[in-house]
Amino acid sequence: MSALPIIEMRKIDKHFGAVHALRNIDFHLMPGEILGLVGDNSAGKSTLMKVLTGAYQRDSGDVLVDGKITHFRSPQDSRDLGMEMIYQDFALCGNMDVGQNIFLGRWPRHFGLFVNRPKMYAEANAVLKRLKVDVNSVFQKVESLSGGRQQSVAIARAISFNPRVVIFDEPTANLSVMATERLLETMTELKRQGVAQVIISHRLTDIFAVGDRVMVLKRGQVVGDRYVRHTTEREVLELIVSGTAETALTAEQAAPKAA
Ligand SMILES: Nc1ncnc2c1ncn2[C@@H]1O[C@H](COP(=O)(O)OP(=O)(O)OP(=O)(O)O)[C@@H](O)[C@H]1O
Ligand SMILES: [Mg+2]
After folding, report:
1. Same structural domain for residues 158 and 223?
2. Would you say the CB of residue 41 lies under 6 angstroms from ligand 1?
């Protein structure tokens, strides 16, 4: 594993009017790592990740990708550097089918004109296969799919960009036990393919099942940063409820120790 974090954020601050949503946050993500980001409602989890992808602009602090300071103006900028975020609400078009959603905004075309439907659906099938998820048909309208399958489509769309980093915002909140298992398998499969991931979740069991490290936010501050193998669900829960501000691990401190 490389010692250079793929992503780093330094001293990130963000206000929404009077709300101080993020306070002086340090964050890093190593290549191929799965990081759980936890905290109570309004702790700042989604905001931190949206600052990372350029969906929100930070007030101050630095975002670094591969050690270089970046200034993402929009999620498209971060996508260009290999980052994808799957939002809490999936952000899909219900009245379009699975294939159309996966390639929304970049449908393959014949001669730059007509949509190349066979190519689009073949590629959609290939992405779904890579993910090992089952969506009955790429021709089905997304609004007719269950929540779990809609989520698979959102993930397939993200994966079709061949990202190096994927951020999941509350992916298991509305999933059945089976669908949750499938998602965690998908995350493990992506990790095997070298994709670094952040999972925001209130379900610590999920984070302890697949995560390497867990970071706890409280009222916009870091109150804990632990290796999963060095902590317990109980300790993390205590940090979520009554943690006080502490410094996040630096990439160096977090560097994997020889087993
Ligand atoms: N677009 C926005 N405009 C105004 N305030 C916002 C906006 N986005 C977030 N906030 C505020 O910033 C704070 C952090 O919100 P955020 O959504 O990041 O929390 P969260 O940890 O993701 O919570 P949850 O677990 O409920 O999703 C909250 O006080 C929220 O109201
Ligand atoms: Mg959120």
Report:
1. no
2. yes
